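Read as chain and fold; for instance:
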Amino acid sequence: MDAIRIKNLKIPARHGVYDFEKDQDSLFELDIELRLQLKKPGSSDRLEDTISYDDVVANVTETFTKKDYQLIEAAGEAICKSLLQTFSLDQVIVRIRKPHAPIMASLDTVEIELVRNYEEV
């Protein structure tokens, strides 16, 4: 299966369980992978035959910032659902990183990954 990937999209938002996480924006990092057939746009070289990266980024940003989620898992689920309902996709993979997670440990980031298929919508 072919794929379009958007890597390390940075979006400010106020997601978190704790009150202090909701007081100001924090930067989240997202990877979006869209699974679909790309043979037609590969042959035609026409934007109309594929999915616009700009449209995907706008969709993800709007969905991610529409409300303040307690869990990035819930934000990711909303993104998967929106992408699968908006675009003609076979599968979507969404990764969300929270490098500022309030954990008393030495780590680079925490990350969730959701894999959803068209049939699951």
